[in-house]
Amino acid sequence: MTKPYRIDNLQYANWSEKIFRQMREGNVDAVHVTIAYHENFRETVLNMEQWNRWFERFPDLIFQGFRGDDVRLARETNRTAIFFGYQNPSPIEDDIGLVEIHHKLGARFMQLSYNNQSLLATGCYEAEDPGITRMGREVIAEMNRVGLVVDMSHSADRSTLEAIEISSRPIAITHANPHNWHPALRNKSDDVLRALSQSGGMLGFSVYPHHLNGKSDCTLENFCQMIADTADLMGINHIGIGTDLCQDQPDSIVEWMRTGRWTKQIDYGEGSASDAGFPPMPKWFHDNRDFGNIEQGLRDVGMNDADVGKVMGENWLRFYDESFGAI
Fold first, then answer.
1. Which of 23, 51, 166, 273 is the S-S candidate for 28 at Cβ 3.0 to 4.6 Å?
2. Backbone angles phi, psi at 84, to 5 degrees
3. 109, 148 in Cβ contact below 8 A?
């Protein structure tokens, strides 16, 4: 039997040769990596320059992906295709013309907001959600035109539902879980998940402990049963993996994620000072070598091989094929 594609549609690791080799040990065909959280245009380009150095140093392990066929090339050449994405619209600053520029540089996903209100949409930590802004509507149309996927992983519900409605192409929630399974602010309501699937969109399940039922103590069976239950809600063709793996990152990176440059205070998000650093990962998923645990776990809760293949990567591959090119 041909092994299913393995695509992780969100990581923000402290990248190194060790991690790239673990991707190969785990037979990971493609990873969508976060290039920017709060960076402006120039800072984002500097991050891309660093990735170019890694592509030069480790051409036998990784290369930059631009289209779905690059995932197939990665499989054929025993490498991992790296796709760029942003967790905030800060790289386009206030210039809609930069949407096309970023797509030409290789960006394939962009969140319309992180946890706060942006120029485009509302983040999930805001008390009020007025929805997609005037600029947001224009940027969505431009993203649709060039093939830059709208990502609403950190956005509030109204903004997310409006983005689904406004976008002429299916959107993604690259890394989140159902709110009814674990009520984190970042996790998504059944209404959002239904609308996402009905519009042809994709959800990537996260293993970040703050988004898990039981957090770091979440069991593999619990996680995989949640995936099976969400397949019943959304349909098997609209779900995949987006681990939100932050491997080997220092705790200071959590502060950068949450705080950026917008506040002088420490933002603890949904928690308290005890949640300031990275939580321990669940024992069944520490790095890219552990995707086989999820694959087996899905079989153990009753998924057949075809459905396991869809969740592990084939759904994302289809989405890549349909989403990354211009209209």
1. 23
2. -90, 145
3. yes
**pLDDT (tens digit, 9 = 90+) per residue, 87-112?**
999 999 999 999 999 999 999 999 99
User: Does the residue 130 lie in any domain?
Assistant: yes
Reported as a single tens digit per residue, the pLDDT across 187-208 is 999 999 999 999 999 999 999 9
User: Any bridge partners for residue 110, and if so which?
Assistant: 86, 150
What is the C-alpha to C-alpha distance for residues 194 and 172, in angstroms, rounded to an integer? 13
Query: What is the pLDDT, as a whole number, of residue 254?
Result: 84
Domains identified in the chain, total number: 1
d(CA 314, CA 237): 9
Q: pLDDT value at position 276? A: 67
d(CA 41, CA 20): 26
Domain ranges, residue 61: 7-323
The C-alpha atoms of residue 172 and residue 211 are separated, in whole angstroms, by 17
pLDDT of residue 1: 61
Q: 99 near 89, Cβ under 8 Å?
A: no
Task: Tell me what the mean pLDDT of segment 257-282 comes to.
Answer: 79
**Tell me, what amino acid is at 175?**
H
